[in-house]
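ok trying this again, last paste got cut off
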Amino acid sequence: MAEHHLPAQPTHSRWNRNLPPRLRIAPGDIVHFKCVDSSGSQVRPGMRLAEFLNIDRGLIHALTGPIFVEGAAPGDVLQIEILEVAHKGWGWSSVIGGLGFLKERFSEPFLFHWELDATETRSLEPAVVPLRPFCGVMGVAQAEDGEFRTRPPGHFGGNMDVRELCTGSTLYLPVMNAGALFSAGDAHAAQGDGEVCINGIECPAAATLRFHLHKGRSLSGPMLETAPAQKAISDGEWIVVESGPDAVAAARAATSRMIDLLVSRWSFQDIHAYLLCSVAMNLRWSQVVNEPIFTVSAAISKSVLPPRKLF
């Protein structure tokens, strides 16, 4: 087993199996990745909105890699142990016109900067947001020739934004090319299930990963083995419930009602409530069996907010 250090630059923002590998490793090796924030180091602490609106969006999802795993071939499974993901003390979130889950309600651009402590951030008072850094993008090169934007995820992994891809978890990916050609990036210090405003807490990060190879063990898409929960007992949650024949519309309604609740009971500005939902609220299917009516819930842990009586 060997250990390798891979600096972020030069990053790439397209999946392309013809990109030359930046590193060759053997199964069992550990790689210490440096990852810039998702903007490719264009956003910096204190940046103003006007400057943010002029960044090159073709650089979004600036990824570190690819790495070539010796012996990997199509039909194998690549195992990635996530030994550690650590943020660098700052991050950002934004709202972009025409994007996000509630783009009709939030059409004006907005940029927010976060200061990150070791395990939480209090930048969005009175909320206390717990931090659990992870890489939003982890994937292998696709099987087809050409350049592919990184925004859509797929059976190769990619921009999955699964917040359980944190320290202590293990990811399994199907190999589609010789060497697998793995890349990672788009680190988030925190994110809710749904990432509703289009960002988690975007941040630069360091990720330490160990790679294993399983020969001839086919896999049709990504699988994840999660770490044990750090906290066995829940603090309780505030949950908004919506039902209807359109699950996406129900999820939007639940998110919007949660924003209204945060504004009315905790005095957030609505744009700040939207950001908080993106980094700390979890959208869930609650039932899919009562067709044609589906139920979606939106939940925020009580530990994030000061205690309140609603009525």
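PB: full thing came through this time. The first strand starts at residue 3 and ends at 6.
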